[in-house]
Amino acid sequence: MIRSIGIALLMVVCTGAQQSVGPIPRQTILAELVAANRILANEGVMDSYGHVSMRDPGNPGSFFLSRDIPPGNVSAADILQYDLDGNAIAAGNASSYSERFIHSEIYRARPDVMAVVHAHSQEVIPFAATGIPLQPLFHMAAFLGVGIPVFDPRDAGSSGDLSVRSPAMGKSLAATLGAKPGLLMRGHGMVLVGPSLHVAVARSYYMNANAQLQVQSAQLGGTSKVHYLDADETMKASPVDNYERAWAWWKQRAEKGK
Ligand code: MN
Q1: C-alpha 221 – ligand 1 centre gap (Å)
Q2: 99 assigned to active site
Q3: Which of 38, 55, 92, 127 is such that its CA lies 20 to 30 A from the CA of 208?
């Protein structure tokens, strides 16, 4: 009894010593998010645009996201904390991504989501443009088998600006996402979410890879002959390590700059 109280007190003291309320130190969260930005840029998922965020596990009503700079340049000092209205906390003179409402409204609508990636991946653009659905071709992208919806800004009341620059547009996008792992944005790009930062980043990478493979397969055999993963394979084929090996490898590559 005394021992367990002692452990509990130790946990409170340790937690109080950290800037984040939760068990993960703030500096660890920022380091993870820096790595995610560098990985997505280094692996070609993002160019000079796009952004990745992580919910604060110790304060689920807020999330971390870089200020408005290219992902490949992000350092810990660039990362801001936001509330679920998309307001930066203590931003100073730093400017925010105009599309931060993609993140804030998904976190509001989906308590299970711990990370969000938004990218302008050219590989996926043809799918939303044609209405041909993305379908899983290999086990690394089995998550696509649940169906990837398409968000059309016109349906959300956009006047032609294809970006999500308001809470209302963010809410509409989150409604289109529903319980799915990601969506396509017509004429714009994609959004992936995950129960962890590593999974959200890996889903982004493998959705792009699958899009390339799907185009190649269609060119080889015609769409009617392509053999996609079936429903059973979709359920069973996800990587057993939740992409942790991929994350470690990509992080190493990004740190080496190759
Ligand atoms: Mn965008």
Answers
A1: 33
A2: yes
A3: 55
Consecutive H or E run containing 3: helix 2-17
- Reading the chain (258 residues) residue by residue, the pLDDT tens digits are 344 444 443 333 333 333 444 578 999 999 999 999 999 999 999 999 999 999 999 999 999 999 999 999 999 999 999 999 999 998 888 999 999 999 999 999 999 999 999 999 999 999 999 999 999 999 999 999 999 999 998 888 777 889 999 999 999 999 999 999 999 999 999 999 999 999 999 999 999 999 999 999 998 875 567 899 999 999 999 888 999 999 999 999 999 976
Catalytic option among 32, 43, 99, 123: 99
Q: Which domain holds residue 156?
A: 2-256
Instruction: Report, in angstroms and rounded to the nearest whole number, the Rg of the chain calculated over CA atoms.
Output: 19
We report the CATH number of the domain holding residue 29 as 3.40.225.10
CA proximity to 122, closest of 52, 182, 189: 189
The number of folded domains in the chain is 1
